[in-house]
Write a structure and sequence with these properties.
Order of helices and strands: HHHHHHHHHHHHHHHH
Radius of gyration: 23 Å
Largest sheet: none
Helix content: over 70%
Structural class: mainly alpha
Number of helices: 16
Oligomer: single chain
Number of strands: 0
Strand content: under 5%
């Protein structure tokens, strides 16, 4: 137990991916706001057919009508704090505000939520306690050894990974009790639905019995064994690549883009800094040594020299 606590305190093992994840999630939230902005009145005001609940905070009788009447102002404020979080301004305080505002926005209209939105809400909560400001920030946080921040960051990442595993395992248990999954024909019925007809190949693949049976049982077995195999070093990469392929396939064939993107992105938390930093540094060196970067840098230096000459 003492060794475990010591390892948690020594360093933030996922400082790079936490920072990277923060940036990508903020960009995703900004995209979602711009997508929903023309429909704010329809979706969130409650004066149309999508009427939401009267209260939006559990255990507290907080009437949502005021927020509905000022939904555009709320969206602008929410966007402002997402941008602050994107650049690392306000750090964990800003992360808390983004989580709370996202949670309120989801409660205003729960009818449009999907599994990706639900997972994202919990991830934003875990990120409140993590130090995700070591990279890609205006004011970077310095990593300290033997600090409570490292413990909270490592526990946050562990919580995200366990949460993901629970989602897959519980989903697999429900599938085993569904007739279409148990008999290996779930893909057939899914690909026949017009709502999930992402490509012209859907109807063709649905008629292929080999594809239907293999894809159905592959999904079921992968979700059932992923929560176990992903914690072991040797099979980890294989099961993660299989899961990424599964989510990418769902995104393409069923048009569930943001949903699958979030699940693919979370897979990266199973790899620590020792995996990500060499790749990041290699990419950064290639960019710095590229012809385009050298050209831009020379132009900037030339411009600065001209400005200095003109000042004299």
């Amino acid at each position: 137990m003492k060794n475990l606590i010591t390892s948690l305190k020594t360093s933030n093992n996922n400082s790079f991916y936490l920072s990277f994840f923060r940036v990508i999630i903020c960009l995703l939230l900004i995209k979602q706001i711009f997508q929903i902005f023309p429909l704010l009145s329809l979706v969130y005001k409650g004066d149309q057919f999508l009427a939401g609940p009267e209260t939006i905070v559990e255990f507290v009788s907080f009437n949502s009508q005021f927020l509905r009447e000022n939904i555009y102002a709320y969206a602008y404020i929410y966007l402002f704090f997402i941008i602050l979080y994107l650049f690392g301004l306000g750090k964990n305080g800003t992360a808390l505000i983004v989580f709370l505002m996202n949670d309120v926005l989801q409660k205003l209209c729960p009818h449009i939520l999907n599994g990706g939105d639900n997972l994202l809400k919990f991830i934003l909560l875990y990120m409140v306690f993590a130090n995700s400001f070591t990279y890609f920030c205006i004011h970077k946080s310095k990593e300290k050894k033997d600090s409570i921040s490292n413990v909270l960051s490592n526990l946050s990442v562990l919580s995200i990974c366990i949460h993901l595993c629970l989602i897959y395992f519980i989903s697999a248990l429900h599938k085993t009790n569904a007739t279409v999954w148990f008999h290996g024909v779930a893909t057939y019925y899914t690909f026949q639905l017009e709502r999930f007809s992402g490509t012209s190949l859907n109807s063709i693949l649905a008629k292929n019995s080999y594809f239907v049976v293999i894809s159905t049982y592959f999904t079921l077995i992968l979700e059932l064994y992923y929560p176990v195999l992903v914690w072991f070093k040797k099979p980890k990469t294989i099961v993660i690549l299989c899961m990424i392929s599964l989510h990418a396939g769902i995104a393409v064939f069923m048009m569930l883009y943001d949903f699958q993107f979030i699940f693919i992105l979370v897979q990266g938390f199973f790899y620590k800094n020792s995996f990500w930093l060499p790749k990041y540094n290699s990419l950064k060196n290639k960019i710095y040594s590229s012809t385009l970067f050298s050209f831009v840098k020379s132009k900037i230096v030339k411009y600065e020299n001209n400005q200095i000459s003109n000042s004299y």
